[in-house]
Q: What sequence folds into this?
């Protein structure tokens, strides 16, 4: 970023320092005083920050702080970065661990909820503490970094579970650890033959794009296939720096998927999401999920209705490239996992016909095939798999005469009140 595009507090920082991710980390805004010095906020904003920063940690990279417009109460960057008094409002539905990741954790730092994939948390540290973070119970609380003992337990667990074919490395932000430690993680996972793909969830391409260096790319390329999940929420976050970071990752052969969180006052508008997603495609980032905001403590002011998410998808599907249409999902409170929520395109159906409507509202009859038999069951390998690894409605469809019975589970602390 040329010096001319920097705010006064950063105008004299030499380009070499500004573009160095370690300088950016060393100079993060971590106190109310730092924010006052750099961004000169109003007294009302200062009071709000003071009221909540003891409870929820504050950290903003200089790069991201430079994108904030303090003159605008509606700046989407400011809303994601600057603590606000509304975080002190803890409403009845707020939960400490809304996704119950701790419940499904067989060893510290590992969540095994879905049959064939796990979530591996390798650090609690982020470069910036997003005000809407779901994992605020963990990230930024103690700044625990990579723990070799817990990590080895997680690796042993994955090695002993051959059904795990997909490992999602997250945190905190996993790209906050050194290249050497990250290489240790990737190498350990690649030594397990049944791990087919690795995903890295990182917000650094958005809030600290300087972290994407040639040496990081060179190291990670040795452990393909690796996918990147990143987290752009607004088109203002797509800058020459973040575009360059994504280009480097894409050129390195890492497919990049974006997971936007639907946030009131930041992006809860069909136009804003459409603009973001179209722009993401130009930097080779695929809009993957639009997340309903979770029920984490102190973030209820960011929540919108589910209806708003459906309205946004309605405004995208058919109105822009299919590639720009993410799946709108709700991560169910209580650890039920992700559920896609879609506008309803099927109006009704019979044995041989389906009545569907398109994005313009045109209603069409789709004739089902008259004679149709699946090859499913004709292939011996398929037959063998038929009753394996099926649960939920997929099991009901695969087996004759089966019922699903809800399982009793213990109430968590939030539910006990
Ligand atoms: S980068 Fe991700 S984990 Fe870290 S604070 Fe932001 S949302 Fe939370």
A:
């Amino acid at each position: 970023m040329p010096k001319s595009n920097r705010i006064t507090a950063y105008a004299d920082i030499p380009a070499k320092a500004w573009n160095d991710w370690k300088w950016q980390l060393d100079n993060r805004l971590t106190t109310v005083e730092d924010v006052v010095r750099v961004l000169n906020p109003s007294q009302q904003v200062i009071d709000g920050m003071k009221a909540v920063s003891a409870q929820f940690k504050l950290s903003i990279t200089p790069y991201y702080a430079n994108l904030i417009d303090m003159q605008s109460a509606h700046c989407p960057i400011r809303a994601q970065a600057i603590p606000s008094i509304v975080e002190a409002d803890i409403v009845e539905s707020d939960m400490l661990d809304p996704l119950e990741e701790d419940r499904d954790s067989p060893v510290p730092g590992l969540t095994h909820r879905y049959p064939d994939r796990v979530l591996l948390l390798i650090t609690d540290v982020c470069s910036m503490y997003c005000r809407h973070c779901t994992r605020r119970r963990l990230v930024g609380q103690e700044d625990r970094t990579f723990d070799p003992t817990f990590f080895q337990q997680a690796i042993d667990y994955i090695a002993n579970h051959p059904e795990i074919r997909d490992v999602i490395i997250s945190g905190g932000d996993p790209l906050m650890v050194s290249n050497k430690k990250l290489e240790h993680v990737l190498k350990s996972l690649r030594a397990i033959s049944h791990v087919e793909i690795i995903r890295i969830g990182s917000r650094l391409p958005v809030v600290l794009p300087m972290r994407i260096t040639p040496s990081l790319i060179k190291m990670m390329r040795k452990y393909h296939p690796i996918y990147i999940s990143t987290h752009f929420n607004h088109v203002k976050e797509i800058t020459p720096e973040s575009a360059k970071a994504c280009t480097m990752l894409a050129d390195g052969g890492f497919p990049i998927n974006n997971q936007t969180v639907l946030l009131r006052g930041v992006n809860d508008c069909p136009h804003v999401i459409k603009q973001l997603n179209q722009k993401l495609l130009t930097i080779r980032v695929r809009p993957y999920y639009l997340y309903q905001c979770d029920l984490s403590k102190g973030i209820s002011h960011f929540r919108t209705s589910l209806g708003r998410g459906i309205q946004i998808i309605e405004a995208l599907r058919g109105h822009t490239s299919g590639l720009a249409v993410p799946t709108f999902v709700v991560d169910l409170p209580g650890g039920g996992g992700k559920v896609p929520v879609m506008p309803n395109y099927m109006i009704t159906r019979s044995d041989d016909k389906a009545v569907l409507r398109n994005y313009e509202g045109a209603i069409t009859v789709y004739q089902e095939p008259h004679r149709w038999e699946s090859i499913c069951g004709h292939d011996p390998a398929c037959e063998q798999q038929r009753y394996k690894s099926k649960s939920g409605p997929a099991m009901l469809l695969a087996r004759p005469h089966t019922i699903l019975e809800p399982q009793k589970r213990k109430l968590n602390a939030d539910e006990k009140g």
Summary: Residues 270-282 form the longest helix (13 residues). The chain has 16 helices and twelve strands. The chain has two domains: 3-88, 110-340.
